[in-house]
Specification:
The protein has 430 residues and is mostly helical. The chain contains 14 helices and no strands. The longest helix has 43 residues.
Length: 430
Amino acid sequence: MRPPSPGDGALRHPHWWQRRWVRYGALTSLLALSGLVILALVRRQTGTEGFLVGLGLAVLPVPWLIAAFRWLDRVEPGPWRNLVFAFAWGACAAALIAIVANSFATKWIATSTADPAGADTLGATVIAPIVEESAKAAAVLLVFLFRRRDFTGIVDGVVIAGVTATGFAFTENILYLGTAFGTDQLTGDRGIASVTAATFFVRIVMSPFAHPLFTVLTGIGFGVAALSAERQHVRRLLLPAGGLLLAMGMHAFWNGSATFGEYGFFAVYAAFMVPAFALLTWLAVWTRQRELRIVRAELPAYVLAGWLGPAEPSALGSMRARRMARDYARHHHGRPAARQVARYEACATSLAFLRQRGRKGKAGADFVVRERELLDELWRHRGVARPALEYAARTAAPARPVYAGPPPAAPWPAYGHPTGPYARYNPYRS
């Protein structure tokens, strides 16, 4: 028998889907138009042959970067449409804003000061970081505002920001590599001594992570803001702004490294960029492990309420067990069953994060409705997912005891009024 879920009977507004498709249509049109314009601009600057060469070389790091961010997001994977939007925004809208604004600002400074060289330096070290990081941050802001259910913490901010910056760097690399190829065509340079080879080595081999590294700081700011309570308005405003300022500062420092002498670029790369990249990578991986600990800590409450089996919290808190559960379902029931298990795992993870926010008083006004939706989704897939997860729990960690009782913690206050919809099935309430 299906346990009672909170907020049964709540209905969405009858025209919610119409508003959603209007937004989707407007956003798709904007990105498509931006893509056509940026394609025309880059092709005009590089020529058709240079554009094709730049495209072929610039695409090389993209699959690796996307795969890395997708791996990081495996605990609570966000929908692909968010990643597609982020990449498209970075490659089209943000790149278009950057090209137009940077060119206009640099020309204006050169005209005003009659110093083209100084204008180029100022444009690279001041104007470009401000414009480019703001344009990329707009994608993170849009997901944070309009896809709030998919943006629940630091990892989500890192992934959206990183994928947006990957798209931006992809377009920028086409422009730089295509221009370098055109220069080599005029000078006759070939091979390792060519401008194209040098540009490829610096941008694709040495620093494919540069733009993602900058923008990830903005994403961390938004991610920490997502963990804050809705009533903490100042905190939710200052944290993203602080992350954006850090991203601009790091970007400016990186662009200015070329002015630090003959070996300034390599010194900044070795002493600053590589350690910063290692530190942020460690933070991202640590955050992912923390998410698994939250899953193991929060889901036992739903075992007591009858929504989950006793072995499921431990299995859902282990990436190895999750993979084994999907493999088990695929082997016995085919790929559709594996997709059901993956969906079950994602919903259970979202449920754990939602419960943690509710326990800390940081959940939004739609807490009860969202919890009901996740519980109903789990119930629909339980037939396939529960046996697979029980098998994975036994196989992946046979020595780990399964959950057998409530955690030794004080009862947490139910979200909202203690006699509200959630209270009737709160397992901690006597």
